[in-house]
Amino acid sequence: MELNGVTIDNTFAEGFPIWVSRVIITAVTREYAMKAATEATGFATSAIGCPCEAGIEGYLSGDETPDGRPGVSIMICASKKKLPEQVMERIAECVLTAATTSVFNGLPEAEEKFDIKIHFFGDKFESKVEIGGRACWKIPIMEGDYVGEEVFGMVKGVAGGNFFVMAENQMAALLGAQAASDAILEVKGTITSFPGGIVASGSKVGSKNYKFPIPATTNEQYCPSIRDKVPDTKVPEGVKSIYELVINGVDEAAVKKAMAAGIKAAVKVPGVTFISAGNYEGKLGPFQLKLHEILA
Amino acid sequence: MELNGVTIDNTFAEGFPIWVSRVIITAVTREYAMKAATEATGFATSAIGCPCEAGIEGYLSGDETPDGRPGVSIMICASKKKLPEQVMERIAECVLTAATTSVFNGLPEAEEKFDIKIHFFGDKFESKVEIGGRACWKIPIMEGDYVGEEVFGMVKGVAGGNFFVMAENQMAALLGAQAASDAILEVKGTITSFPGGIVASGSKVGSKNYKFPIPATTNEQYCPSIRDKVPDTKVPEGVKSIYELVINGVDEAAVKKAMAAGIKAAVKVPGVTFISAGNYEGKLGPFQLKLHEILA
Amino acid sequence: MELNGVTIDNTFAEGFPIWVSRVIITAVTREYAMKAATEATGFATSAIGCPCEAGIEGYLSGDETPDGRPGVSIMICASKKKLPEQVMERIAECVLTAATTSVFNGLPEAEEKFDIKIHFFGDKFESKVEIGGRACWKIPIMEGDYVGEEVFGMVKGVAGGNFFVMAENQMAALLGAQAASDAILEVKGTITSFPGGIVASGSKVGSKNYKFPIPATTNEQYCPSIRDKVPDTKVPEGVKSIYELVINGVDEAAVKKAMAAGIKAAVKVPGVTFISAGNYEGKLGPFQLKLHEILA
Amino acid sequence: MELNGVTIDNTFAEGFPIWVSRVIITAVTREYAMKAATEATGFATSAIGCPCEAGIEGYLSGDETPDGRPGVSIMICASKKKLPEQVMERIAECVLTAATTSVFNGLPEAEEKFDIKIHFFGDKFESKVEIGGRACWKIPIMEGDYVGEEVFGMVKGVAGGNFFVMAENQMAALLGAQAASDAILEVKGTITSFPGGIVASGSKVGSKNYKFPIPATTNEQYCPSIRDKVPDTKVPEGVKSIYELVINGVDEAAVKKAMAAGIKAAVKVPGVTFISAGNYEGKLGPFQLKLHEILA
């Protein structure tokens, strides 16, 4: 299959279930909502080495938020057990401390809920208020009063949506991945948790050549610079650089939509020559997100 | 003491020792260095709830980096014991995965050093290279080759530099704090670890009114909205909002310089009326950063 | 009338007809489309002193552009006679010269059209191509090939939509205006042509106190700092600062929608106390955009 | 000559005298200074089609500005005759109207001065004030009081500093040019007036193939896509895309420094293969900025 002259590999991304919470952060202006969202979703690229995976879902206008202020929606992803604590800590450390922010439950209809009890921070100076039909707490703080919800929904979403942008040189691959990342930012219900939405280094579980235990090492099959030294390389001929887009979403449909939007954007970038995706041959994850189906 | 018509309280910020590493992140353009730096310093506002405190020290031009590329310098702060692991994880998860980045030791003359052994990620495909006189490892990854140092220095720096920007209303306090944060960004050797460099909510250890254990609750003495209910309030009359700037630095001189730059910027903002600082009456921290001395 | 506790003056903005073209600028990434759009809409705040009025309407995703690349939509406004030349010059100087850009007619259904003949720049090396159903020219340039339309539509739109954000101090007024400007950016069919979308200084035609001719001087009736010296001041008591939002749109409905969105955003900002609008008592402009009706 | 493996052509950029004013714009925060500076330097890429050439020289910290606020320095370039009017109009339309701004003369030691008489806008409500040793006017406006200088210096500077970034494909050329543009932003005394600092299309005077008069057409000698059709092409073999950096400066030394900084940055970008510069064989401009000398 070709799209805009770029080969689309006949393969699939392999997705896994992950629990997802969506937190709506509002502030006096977009800029201040974004500052809090950026801090709250930092150090959260991969569940392997970070406490969770998190990213920015998108901007919200005043029409779309409970308090009528501009907002940024973030998604935090982890195991069902770890998720409540991660949401709690990231709100407490990164949003409650940020200027002019409020937080709201971005999954009000989720059946699974948890309560982060942030109002104890008020030391009994806090009070209940209703904002846009939401039960909130008002907590006196230095800037004035913090207002926010503390019950959040969580849903069983999909992690590990992905595709590779391969190109004739590194800068073409990079801007292809950038265009893909920008496009995915506009797809509701999805995030890319890596820096700037782009992954520069892929890993395999364990090590082939070191004798002592290492949790993860470079995935040499996808390394263009050692293509000639790796007999089972998966780097197509002529490809000099690869970036991966990794997508988590609230459901399979959202992840597929994001993959399609990202791939369509990447193939518009001159020098991008090949699109593929990563999987474990279907042995591990229940979701097979097939590139040709997604783009059909 | 008055500065630009704003009262400067006769008090001091109380600083504590903290161990600090500086990591120089370079990339193909400033923008990509900043993306990695932002991810690597996220979820790192306060050592109380985050694994470390981290922030962006500033931009570096190609003249100032070992590989001649544009860069961003970040500082990561923690206990001596925890710091190496935090530097390791944040580089491994947030910089090695980011597009086009390299990392270099930003404290090459520090006596204390640690080694993060990131080259094992190369699974023996890695090799040694020298970049700008630095011993680096070149590791094949998807985008091409990652290049970076893995021995980093750490110094005993100063945490807890701080001052309060108080104003006649919230928006004046906010822009006063913003001007301060911008000014501090230009002072070498310092960071502000909170979102956008500004702290909206201060805390005290434990709780006064709840009977069960809570690690920290709102510092009601600095809450303008309940000023009338708190007999020992520290909110000056007429002050309606307070933001705090919290500064970590490589040494006391740098923290003082940042405090001075921040305060001078804040008092230029119309509506800012009072500057103070937080301390534990000298009982805990060895550094007393006196506002009047700093500004003299 | 009150909105969120803020008084809404019982008055109207007075609008005038203006001719409007919409130009869709696409590029390899959003960032590069925005760089071109920013240059192309610069020095275009007010038709009084600038060659035209221009601004950014908003971002477009790949789904919304003829070539499937990310884009920014801009609007250029002038008299019917001057508009074609302004569109021509701003595309030729600021978009054709910008990296990776294409331009498309953003008003394909407008009855009035004009042709900017940019293909002569190709010196007969140019050729016709069709992109997304649009008749375009491909012109060889240094970066590769520039591709774009050269026939543009124009419609008789509405200029002079406006409202004033008044507050208890300057920083509250500023962030109120900022929130309004951010909100208006999301309303299709409208622009704010002033720097950052905010107007800090209002003018009246001519001069009262100087004897020689001056085209425009400060509108002292709206100057809080000299409120006591101006008997017919229109500054409400307690107001210390005023910013104006000035809106142009493709039609009256769009301007009204933008005014409503902006006012709703501004009144959420603490310290904003009064919203009004500017008019010539209905003597000049055919459109009376009444605040109470717009917000009903 | 080679630099980082990239060929540096043995040629020179040909510079011309141009008159330059430097305007320092300060504001409550960096962000607001930048908004005004962006508007004031828009639609000013090339003196051929724009009223002037203008660009952002760089940020200034509070230490570097007359009023101690953060600032942005811009440079406006035109003929000696046209320059005062351009400075006047861009300040009046784009800075006086922008939130919280002041302007100061950035060339206080220049022998040539001009007076833009902006204080008449105050309609006799204005008054003289001294700020940081500068004679300023305070003019009541909507936001409060505008304060700024109105006498500006101008110097005979150098226009037309330039170099070409050539690469094996378009995205490599683009990011090479971007790295160069970022580096030049840090060189005092210089600007790049084109969108984002990068020029995508070069022109020659007049036309070769059209019979009627056209002021400028594409410079086919530097068009990679028609390399095979142009016998006297200057596109080296293997080069698929070219971007130009065009630099104006306060003097020849500054322009040379910017060219060196830009070239050194560009050659670090993978895929960039060749650096050259544009000239008229020394027939027109008095300055010959030789690449090999600049980089020696």
Task: Provide the descriptors you would attach to this structure in a database record.
homotetramer; 296 residues; alpha+beta; Alpha-Beta Plaits; 2 domains; 15-stranded mixed sheet; two-stranded antiparallel ribbon; 5 helices; elongated; transferase (chains A, B, C, D); methanogenesis (chains A, B, C, D); ForMFR_H4MPT_ForTrfase_N (chains A, B, C, D); ForMFR_H4MPT_ForTrfase_C (chains A, B, C, D); ForMFR_H4MPT_ForTrfase_fd-like (chains A, B, C, D)
Describe this structure in words.
Four copies of one chain form a homotetramer. Chain A has two domains: 2-14 and 157-295, Alpha-Beta Plaits (2-Layer Sandwich), CATH 3.30.70; 19-155, 2-Layer Sandwich (Alpha-Beta Plaits), CATH 3.30.70.520. In chain A, strand 9 (134-141) and strand 10 (144-148) form a beta hairpin. In chain A, the strands form two sheets. The first copy, chain A, has a 15-stranded mixed β-sheet that branches. Helices cover 20% and strands 35% of the residues of chain A. Chain A has five helices and 17 strands. The longest helix of chain A is centred in the middle third of the chain and has 15 residues, at 170-184. In chain A, helix 1 packs across helix 2 (83-94) and helix 3 crosses helix 4 (252-266). By secondary structure, chain A is an alpha+beta fold. Chains in contact: A-B, A-C, A-D, B-C, B-D, C-D. The interface between A and B is large, with 79 and 79 residues.
Mean pLDDT, all residues of chain A: 97
- Between the first and last Cα atoms of chain A, what is the distance in angstroms? 10 Å
Quaternary structure annotation: homotetramer
Q: Spans of chain A with pLDDT under 50 lasting ≥5 residues?
A: none
Largest sheet of chain A: 15 strands, mixed
CATH architecture classification of the largest domain in chain A: 2-Layer Sandwich
Total domain units of chain A? 2
Summarize the largest interface: chains and residue counts. A-B, 79 and 79 residues
Beta-strand content estimate of chain A: 35-45%
Structural class of chain A: alpha+beta
Measured as a percent range, the helix fraction of chain A is: 10-25%
Number of beta-strand segments of chain A: 17
CATH class of the largest domain in chain A: Alpha Beta
Order of helical and strand elements of chain A: EEEHEEHEEEEEEHEEEEHEEH
Q: What's the overall geometry of chain A?
A: elongated
**Number of H- or I-type helical stretches of chain A:** 5
CATH domain fold name of the largest domain in chain A: Alpha-Beta Plaits
What Rg of chain A do the Cα atoms give?
21 Å
Organism (chains A, B, C, D): Methanospirillum lacunae
Family (chains A, B, C, D): Belongs to the FTR family.
GO molecular function, one term (chains A, B, C, D): formylmethanofuran-tetrahydromethanopterin N-formyltransferase activity
EC number (chains A, B, C, D): 2.3.1.101
